[in-house]
Amino acid sequence: QSSQILDLGAGSGRDSIFFLNAGHGVTALDLYKHPIWKDLLIQWPGLLDFKKQSFQKWKSNQLFDAVFDNGCFHHQHSADYKDYLLKLRGVLKPFGIFALCVFAKEDQQNLKIQIRKTDDGRLCRYFSETELKELLNFYGFEFLESQFVYRKRLKQNYLVAITRRLQ
């Protein structure tokens, strides 16, 4: 039995393909339906499921071995963090892995709370490693490790945090 992964902010499915090639089943959510989804569903019958849906409105009874959030959480308003993280915790099996990628600044010492809006109205929140660790720990996730990754295409840093759901 392969592990089941929930891919939040799946986009064109690039990360989903990585998980599929590693032998996992994937449920992928994104706000926008991408044209390539049709071909990927044909290529991966029964192993891949795309949903044009926001995570907050999505309903499922399925529990996942891992959740990968590649850039959704940092678009949430701080008033929504609690609901988002509790819902995420609820779809994750006990001790399941939660990998989270958020906007970050390389200069963590001088990072002030920074929020900006994109042209399409989305919030973009930058996190420090300490702040993210405290937030995730508060909602029942054990912080395992993190790493800064420069996203050349976006010309900015991401903080990738690997956590697991506690019992």
Task: Give your account of this protein's structure.
- By secondary structure, this protein is of the alpha/beta class.
- It is built from four helices and nine strands.
- It has helices at residues 14-21, 37-43, 81-91, 129-138; strands spanning 4-8, 25-30, 48-52, 64-70, 92-104, 114-117, 123-127, 141-151, 156-165.
- Strands 1, 2, 3, 4, 5, 6, 7, 8 and 9 form a nine-stranded mixed beta sheet that branches.
- The two termini are 22 Å apart.
- The mean pLDDT is 89.
The main pleated sheet reads as:
9 strands, mixed
The ordered string of helix (H) and strand (E) elements is: EHEHEEHEEEHEE
Q: What percentage of the residues does DSSP assign to strands (E)? A: 35-45%
Shape: globular
Tally the beta strands: 9
Q: List low-pLDDT spans.
A: none
How far from one another are the termini?
A: 22 Å
- Report the total helices: 4
Question: Which class best fits the helix and strand makeup?
Answer: alpha/beta
Kindly report the average pLDDT value.
89
Taking all Cα atoms into account, the compactness measure Rg is 16 Å
The amount of helix comes to: 10-25%
How would you briefly describe this protein structure?
The chain is an alpha/beta fold and 167 residues long. The protein is built from four helices and nine strands. Strands 1, 2, 3, 4, 5, 6, 7, 8 and 9 form a nine-stranded mixed β-sheet that branches.
